[in-house]
Amino acid sequence: MDKKTETRPRRDLQIEAHAALEKARAMPYGPARSEALKRAGILQNAADMQGLQFAKRGRPPKT
C-alpha cells in the first residue's frame, strides 16, 4: 500500500484537457466519442481542482 501520488502542474493539465477535447470533437458520433468527451471533462476537472489546493479560505483579514 505504498501508493505514490504525483501531481502535475495545472497548466499541463489544462493543455492536455484542451487537446483531448479537440480530439474528441473531431471524432464521429458514437460511444468512443462519448468516452473521449468524458475523459476530457475529467482532465478539466483535475486542472480546476489543482487550483483549489492553493486557494485561501475565508474572508481576508481587515487592515
Write the layout of secondary structure elements.
Layout: H1 10-26, H2 31-52
Describe the overall structure:
The structure is a single chain. 62% of the residues lie in helices and 0% in strands. By secondary structure, the protein is an all-alpha fold.
Give a quick rundown of the structure.
This protein has about 60 residues and is mainly α. Helices cover about 60% and strands about 0% of the residues.
List keywords for this structure.
2 helices; 63 residues; mainly alpha
Distance between the termini: 47 Å
N-to-C order of helices and strands: HH
Mass-distribution shape: elongated
| Discrete helix count | 2
Beta-strand percentage range: under 5%
Q: Roughly what is the average pLDDT, rounded to an integer? A: 81
Largest sheet features: none
Q: Low-confidence runs (pLDDT<50, min 5 residues)?
A: none
Strand-pairing-aware structural class: mainly alpha
Q: What Rg is obtained from the alpha carbons, in whole angstroms? A: 16 Å
Q: Helix share of residues?
A: 55-70%
How many strand units? 0
